[in-house]
Amino acid sequence: MIIGEVKKSSKCIESAKMQLLYYLYDLKQQGIEAEGKLQFPEEKRVESVILDEEEMHKVEQTLLECKAIISQERPPQPRWTGCCMKCSYCECCYA
Ligand code: SF4
Hints:
Elements lengths: L1 E5 L6 H17 L5 E6 L4 E5 L3 H18 L19 H5 L1
Parallel strand pairs: 1-2
Antiparallel strand pairs: 2-3
The protein binds iron/sulfur cluster.
């Protein structure tokens, strides 16, 4: 099974990769083995994303960090990155 994720640009490729790795991780928890394809049609570029042991550890570590943030009484201040401008959550972070 191949899970595809289409992005307009590869500018924020690390977060796009982590998003797809999480999908693969979640599927694996349900007993479904899959690999990912990150697609950037405007750049005519496709990147394979494989959930190996190292990436699985990275996803689990990130989930722990997310849980630590969620358990805080107040969210941390957002840190402006090059990805914020086009992020869907920009209005939530900087309203
Ligand atoms: S707008 Fe917020 S959620 Fe989006 S990349 Fe920036 S800090 Fe992260």
